[in-house]
Specification:
heterotrimer, A alpha/beta, B alpha+beta, C alpha/beta, B: alpha+beta, OB fold (Dihydrolipoamide Acetyltransferase, E2P), 6-stranded antiparallel β-sheet, 3-stranded antiparallel β-sheet, C: alpha/beta, Aspartate Aminotransferase, domain 1, Aspartate Aminotransferase, domain 2
Chain lengths: 478, 127, 438
């Protein structure tokens, strides 16, 4: 595929702006750039075709099954896109007078009410722009809380070794030291190890439940109690909320704050890597530390206010507002019955697919799973040389996005499968057939799998060369 | 089967060490480079930095992993192998030529292994 | 009620049976009974028709201004029609981060193109694939400059206050000292800035055009910072870069900014786009996703996420940033915008914005809206006196369908873009005359 710059021809372009109808400004030459940026010069038709070609080389949820574990690639409803395109939302300046933005404030306020109910929290901020950003914000809440009490000795955040890499990275960013605790044989928190890890330096615990192997930790109440008894707070990583929403709430499990990924659980599209939204919920006692501003209802109207001990701001304005509009549309659509039905559907689909594959592929745990399950291809790799990577790459030939590979780190040759609730049994049946077919190939012709995919636009790219000799922009030549 | 030159000393964390007139030259062993795979970048300390025996002083990156390199000695970095910054593949190609740092004013040394002892460490890990 | 589950109740029973269960409840047997949700206090679900109406009713409560003379970090520029067409394509909209390069060449190539465009725009060597917004980009840039013996950061007080507040929040937890130099009028106090740069200063942050629209003396900033071996982070407006001297030309080390003006609607503050570019020497400190060019085994050109060992999923607690996602679709929006505008169109937008702002400044000065620091060069924003209470003034402009400048420091911060043509400005001037009783 040609790059934009390779399609460019001097003098071409589009007729977009009228001639300026007021006198031009003559800036001092020292303030001006020496030469124009080498932006492409392209006619509209060619620009349109360029992106149509790029779109054909991009696999989205609407292109096929996308069971990417821990990413919750569910269908993105079209009505959500439509409401987020309403001019009453898109054309509003973020610094308009409050009486002219009552609709926007209502969106934020209503969304907060709904999300507090779903998570069992008391307050929510929509300022964080992504899940990792939410983690960071939640950890700052914990930091502010301990500092407000003069409890400066609490410098450590406990993170299970099965956690996603963002958890420890966020804790470091928030100024904490990370203490890693080992998992037990079911991928859950090892209670003895946890008891041994807590102390007067414990600021808090970061946890996903269901955990990263797709199992609900039955000791959850004991876990949060151990942390609270030690004087720490419990942070719920909402990455896996799609398994449990409407059935059990982080707030009831003993968590003090939580982030939620609207782009996972609440069906807003991922956009190739963003924009997402990572709202943070917390219990009342943490609300005074939330980022500024928050929204409140005063009589019939809505206002902004600054929480009295606010941490400050983690992003300009109020977060990825249009993403919140989409999520609100989704939550209102599903409502009281739809929310638990969606998560139950996600769990059912995962178990249905796991059942079809169990006995052929090794599962990390042979028990009912939540919304995702982890297969381990360690034995297959040992017997045939075919790795999780090879299987994943071969899936591409069948028009299917592979599961998450090599995560969690505690499972070897892992493939983490999350079908989501928006897939039909036929899709799951077909996916199972593909998995079984690849298993046969692994046994009959392992060599061919090492070279998969065979039918994609490109073969496996040379990542070593890419990293050793980075080419990060187009070379215009002399 | 990895190469373990007899004349060098080793650590359990797979660094090799060579002493030349009070200056300790430190690198990664053949076993280490092979386990790490194609290296794409090396983070080195600066000249004059202090290093402590048993603590990380550098890390090496492959495409999908990053690994700490631990110092076998306590002292002061007197030279770094700048060639590696441009060409980390040298570690894969010739691990015992591709030294990372040289350390002087050494005040403390970790317990170092001879080639036979290190061979046993490698054998145990490979099993 | 919707749940976007495709199968029927009967089919669900068959699936349950296939996994050896009788009821959905059994899926949750592992959850302690004491914490099972008994009654979820949410409203009943809605049909698509109903929810569309409810959301439209909310949108209806917002006032859309015909004329906007307010910027301060969010700008209404013209958006070519092709931008929305491209970014609405379902493949781009519904894809995840392009981990699987073989089926993601489209989105990867678009990010590579975006990186190239941002390098061209800022005159820098390397760009990442974007971060959340301009403010978090500034904070990430500060972290890029952290060295063992240099940690402190000196900020001009003439930067956007939201950027400053976000940076302070980020720096507080990392214990990075932040010194803010109060502006001298509407520009950076260069003498004070220079005096504040010490041996432990890791970075100096100056925005140009600054919060008040003034084009700063960046040459002096760069000279002062580099004299103390401190890095220079320049906050920029991407439209202005179609015309004004680039961070690269000034010799800045890192350029960051809010990319919203590049084709993104105002949208009550987001989604926006944080862009970050830097000099080659800082490449490996750049946070977030970066796309690189390579080849597959047949030698076909291919794009991949690269330099991943910098990132949180590999470095975990040692990562310099926790950022995972970029704002990929917003980066694509900026890229399509820049491709549609081209070098001439972008320059035209910049010139037209500046020209209309200068025309507005001339027109309203005689009405009691004299520009503060009239000798300072400005781009498309400027701070004026206000002959009456600024909030009250804006209130009185509302019935005219005009969003006036932002009340700031007892004055008013005005903004024009190419969307404010002469007729638009003349309407504002007429309204101001009426409102101010002149």
């Amino acid at each position: 595929m040609k790059l934009l710059f390779e399609r460019s021809r001097p003098g071409r372009g589009m007729d977009l702006l009228p001639p300026c109808d007021v006198p031009a400004v003559s800036f001092d030459a020292a303030l001006l750039r020496d030469s124009a940026p080498r932006l492409p010069e392209i006619a509209e038709v060619d620009l349109g075709r360029h992106y149509t070609e790029l779109a054909k080389q991009t696999h989205g949820v609407n292109d096929g099954f996308y069971p990417l574990g821990s990413c919750t690639m569910k269908y993105n409803p079209r009505v959500d896109e439509e409401t987020a395109s309403l001019p009453g939302f898109t054309q509003i300046h973020p610094l308009q007078p409050l009486d002219t933005v009552q609709g926007c404030l209502e969106v934020l306020w209503k969304s907060e009410q709904l999300l507090t109910e779903i998570t069992g929290m008391d307050a929510v901020t929509y300022q964080p722009a992504a899940g990792a950003h939410g983690e960071y914000t939640g950890l700052l809440l914990i930091r502010c809380y301990h500092q407000s009490r003069g409890d400066t000795a609490r410098t450590k955040i406990i993170v299970p070794d099965s956690a996603h890499g963002t958890n420890p990275a966020s804790a470091t960013m928030a100024g904490f030291k990370v203490v890693s605790v080992p998992s037990n044989e079911m991928g859950g928190v090892d209670l003895d190890a946890l008891r041994a890890a807590v102390g007067p330096d414990t600021a808090g615990l970061m946890l996903t439940n269901p955990n990263t192997v797709g199992l609900f930790d039955p000791n959850i109440l004991e876990i949060t109690q151990i942390i609270h008894d030690a004087g720490g707070l419990c942070y719920y990583d909402g990455a896996n909320l799609n398994a449990i929403m409407g059935h059990v709430r982080p707030g009831d499990m003993g968590f003090d704050c939580v982030h939620v990924n609207l782009h996972k659980t609440f069906a807003t599209p991922h956009g190739g890597g963003g924009p997402g939204s990572g709202p943070v919920g917390c219990k009342d006692f943490l609300a005074p530390f939330l980022p500024s501003p928050r929204v409140k209802k005063a009589g019939d109207s809505y206002e902004f206010f600054d929480p009295e001990q606010s941490m400050g701001k983690v992003r300009s304005f109020y977060g990825n507002f249009l993403v919140v509009v989409k999520a609100l549309t989704y939550i209102l659509s599903l409502g009281k019955e739809g929310i638990p039905a969606a998560s139950a559907g996600a769990v059912l689909n995962a178990n249905y697919l796991m059942k079809k594959l169990a006995g052929h592929y090794d599962m990390s745990f042979n028990t009912l799973c939540m919304h995702e399950f982890v297969m381990t291809l360690e034995k297959l790799a040992h017997d045939t040389g075919v790795t999780a990577m090879d299987v994943a790459k071969r899936l591409l030939d069948f028009g299917m996005h592979p599961p998450t590979m090599y995560f969690p780190l505690i499972v070897h040759e892992a493939l983490m499968v999350e079908p989501t609730e928006t897939e039909s049994p036929e899709t799951l049946d077909e996916a199972a057939e593909v998995f079984l077919k690849i298993l046969e190939e692994a046994k009959s012709d392992p060599e061919s799998l090492h070279h998969a995919p065979h039918d994609c636009a490109i073969g496996r790219p040379d990542e070593v060369t890419a990293a050793r000799n980075p080419i990060l922009r187009y070379d215009f030549g002399a | 089967m990895s190469v373990i030159p007899a004349e060098l000393k080793y650590t359990k964390s797979h660094e090799w060490v060579k002493e030349e007139d009070g200056v300790f030259v430190i690198g990664l062993t053949d076993y280490a480079q092979s386990a790490l795979g194609d290296l794409v970048f090396v983070n080195l300390p600066e000249e004059g930095d202090a290093v402590t025996a048993g603590e990380a002083f550098s890390d090496v990156e492959s495409v999908k992993a990053v690994s700490d390199v631990f110092s076998p000695v306590t002292g002061e970095v007197c030279a770094i192998n700048e060639e590696l910054l441009d060409n980390p593949a040298l570690i894969n190609e010739a691990p015992y030529d591709a030294w990372l740092v040289k350390v002087q004013n050494v005040s403390d040394t970790e317990e170092l292994l001879d080639a036979a002892a290190y061979e046993a460490v490698v054998a145990a890990e490979e099993a | 009620m919707a749940s976007y589950i495709p199968y029927t109740g009967e089919e669900r029973q068959a699936m349950l049976k296939a996994v050896g269960l009788d009821s959905i409840d059994q899926l949750y047997d592992v959850v302690p009974e004491s914490v099972r949700v008994k009654d979820l206090d949410l409203p009943e679900g809605m049909s698509e028709l109903e929810v569309g109406r409810v959301m439209a009713d909310m949108a209806e409560k917002d006032k859309i201004f015909r004329s906007i003379f307010r910027g301060a970090g969010a700008y209404r520029h013209f958006i070519p029609a092709i931008v929305k067409t491209v970014t609405s394509k379902e493949e781009f909209l519904t894809a995840y981060t392009p981990y699987q390069a073989e089926i993601s060449q489209g989105v990867l190539q678009s990010i590579f193109e975006y990186q190239t465009q941002m390098c061209e725009l800022t005159g820098m060597d390397v760009s990442n694939a974007s971060v959340y917004d301009g403010a978090s980009a500034a904070a990430e840039a500060v972290f890029m400059c952290q060295e063992r013996k240099k940690s402190a950061v000196v900020f001009s007080g003439a930067v956007n206050p939201q950027v400053l507040r976000v940076v302070k929040t980020y720096c507080e937890s990392r214990q990075v000292p932040v010194t803010v130099i109060p502006p001298k009028g509407t520009a950076t106090d260069l003498e004070a800035l220079k005096a504040a740069i010490a041996d432990d200063t890791a970075a100096v942050y100056v925005q140009s055009p600054n919060y008040y629209g003034v084009i700063e003396d960046m040459d002096a900033v760069v000279e002062a910072a580099h004299a103390k071996k401190a890095k220079v982070i320049m906050g920029c407006n991407p439209i202005a870069l179609g015309l004004l001297k680039t961070p690269g030309e000034y010799g800045a080390d890192i350029a960051v900014g809010e990319g919203q003006p590049l084709g993104m609607p105002l949208a009550f503050g987001g989604p926006y786009l944080g862009f970050m570019t830097c000099k080659q020497a800082m490449m490996r400190k750049l946070p977030g996703r970066i796309v690189g060019e390579t080849a597959d085994h047949d030698g076909n050109r291919a794009y991949v996420l690269t330099l991943q060992a910098r990132e949180q999923h590999i470095r975990r607690e040692k990562a310099s940033s926790n950022i995972c996602s970029n704002q990929a679709l917003c980066a694509m929006t900026a890229s399509v915008y820049l491709a549609a505008m081209g070098p001439k169109g972008l320059r035209q937008a910049a010139e037209s914005s500046a020209a209309h702002a200068h025309y507005l400044a001339d027109q309203i000065a005689p009405l009691g809206f004299g520009r503060k620091d009239p000798d300072q060069p400005f781009f498309h924003e400027f701070l004026t006196e206000c002959p009456m209470d600024p909030d009250e003034l804006c209130k009185k402009l509302e019935p005219y369908g005009i969003l006036g400048g932002l009340p700031v420091d007892g004055g008013i911060l005005w903004c024009c873009t190419e969307c404010n043509d002469k007729a638009d400005i003349d309407r504002l001037v007429a309204a101001l005359k009426e409102v101010c009783g002149k």
